[in-house]
Write a structure and sequence with these properties.
The chain is an alpha/beta fold. The protein has 2 domains: 6-187 and 367-385, Rossmann fold (3-Layer(aba) Sandwich), CATH 3.40.50; 200-364, Rossmann fold (3-Layer(aba) Sandwich). 41% of the residues lie in helices and 18% in strands. It is built from 16 helices and 14 strands. The chain has helices at residues 20-34, 47-53, 82-85, 101-113, 128-134, 138-156, 167-175, 200-207, 227-236, 253-262, 280-286, 301-308, 319-324, 339-350, 359-364, 368-385, and strands spanning 6-11, 38-45, 59-66, 74-76, 93-96, 117-120, 161-164, 181-183, 213-218, 242-247, 269-273, 289-292, 313-316, 331-334. The strands form 2 sheets. An 8-stranded mixed β-sheet has the order 4-3-2-1-5-6-7-8, with helices on both faces. The chain has a 6-stranded parallel β-sheet with strand order 11-10-9-12-13-14, sandwiched between helices. Helix 1 packs across helix 16, helix 8 (200-207) packs across helix 11 and helix 9 (227-236) packs across helix 14 (339-350). The protein is globular. The protein starts with 5 loop residues before the first strand and ends with a helix. The mean pLDDT is 93.
């Protein structure tokens, strides 16, 4: 492998969306470029995307059409135009971050130009809750249930290497017949998220007093995130001095707002809406505990961001969260979908906070520097094994 690389990232989700995929892309690009590599981003997007990157070098936006219920992802209308963007670049490696229109074109570019390709598996879009929520047409939903895993196998087995963000996802992909797997976690930016961040002003705005404990969730408001478990846990703990703050937006927002209203929890549960990048570290710093009830996580980057600010995490004992959370060390795991167990673990952590010391230690294992080392090792293996 050459000392410096020219890498082309392809993605169907990008700014202004801020999710785990986008965070991963931007963090890796920053560190790879810092080490002297050239990184091109070819992303499906719209006019807002173009406006946000107009002054940034080597980021090219292909006009896309948004999914109605899942606006983080764009379906590129003319992905072949991206070939013109890279006609002068001598790309050493193609990296598909998503397996949809831009991912398919990345695969074509790789094969036409004899360039090795690696594909990242960021999102468990085979999840039944995802299919039910984001595909309204019953016939299309039936097709998605039947063909999502066969398609994943088709796409990723045509890559020279496949990157999984956690060992649990690597094992899942292997069980489905996907090969050439490498585990490369996504990173947490320890310069942004750390114990020096002051969240006192945000905390005062959220609680209005100094006696209440704060439990926080950050992420998309959608059915696969299982927020009903957290809301029911809040009801179980309604006689305690604990406030629950839900940060984010999403298609299930109205459903969860109505659930809180119906359960008479408006004073207990606060919906904070979309939190800007600038304020996000302060929100983590403002809470006492971070809770993630999702059974959808391929890694759970928000949990790492919370740990980096020194906050213990209570999460569902499932997939990547099972790896990330260590009981009694950096948080507690609860039985998936069990509101009672979630409430019990929240109370256990809140009233024994001094027992949890391992949050920052865990977050440091996922620093940008360390995960980029892992990424470059994966790139080397892919380039060494590619049959070109």
């Amino acid at each position: 492998m050459p000392e410096s690389l020219s890498i082309a990232f392809y993605t169907d989700t990008f700014l202004p969306a801020v999710d785990g995929v986008v965070t991963s892309i931007l963090n890796f690009r920053q560190e790879l470029m810092h080490r002297g590599n050239d990184v091109y981003i070819l992303a499906s997007g719209d006019s807002k995307t173009k406006a946000m990157v107009k002054n940034q070098k080597n980021i090219f936006v292909v006009r896309g059409m948004k999914f109605k219920n899942y606006p983080q992802y764009n379906l590129a209308l003319f992905p072949f135009s991206s070939a013109l963007k890279l006609r002068k670049a001598k790309v050493d490696l193609v990296h598909a971050h998503t397996p949809f229109t831009m991912g398919i074109y990345a695969l074509l570019q790789s094969r036409i130009n004899s360039i090795p390709i690696t594909g990242s598996f960021h999102t468990l879009f085979t999840d039944s809750a995802v299919i039910n929520e984001y595909i309204a047409d019953k016939r299309l939903r039936k097709i998605a249930f039947k063909y999502s895993w066969p398609y994943i196998k088709f796409f990723y087995n045509r890559c020279d290497g496949v990157i999984a963000p956690s060992e649990s996802i690597r094992a899942l992909l292997a069980s489905k017949g996907i090969s050439n797997l490498h585990t490369v976690p996504n990173s947490v930016d320890l310069k942004r998220f750390n114990t020096k961040v002051d969240g006192s002003r945000v905390r005062e705005q959220l609680t209005g007093n100094k006696r209440d404990k704060v439990v926080m969730y950050v992420g998309r408001l959608s059915k696969e995130k299982h927020l009903e478990t957290l809301i029911k846990a809040a009801s179980t703990l309604k006689d305690k001095n604990i406030k629950f703050v839900i940060c984010g937006t999403g298609p299930a927002g109205p459903h969860y707002h109505e659930m809180v209203r119906r359960m008479h929890l408006n004073e207990k549960v606060k919906f904070a809406g979309f939190i800007s990048d600038e304020l996000l570290p302060k929100y983590y710093a403002a809470c006492d505990l971070f809770c993630i009830p999702s059974t959808f996580e391929t890694q759970g980057i928000v949990s790492l961001e919370a740990m980096a600010t020194g906050k213990p995490v209570v999460g569902a004992d499932y997939l990547a969260l099972s790896e990330l959370i260590s009981n009694g060390h950096n948080g507690e795991k609860f039985r998936p979908d069990s509101a009672n167990d979630c409430a019990r673990k929240i109370e256990k952590v809140l009233y024994n906070e001094d027992s949890y010391k391992g949050m920052v230690e865990t977050a440091k294992k996922y620093s940008i520097e360390k995960t980029t080392d892992d990424l470059l090792d994966a790139y080397k293996a892919v380039m060494d094994d590619a049959s070109f």
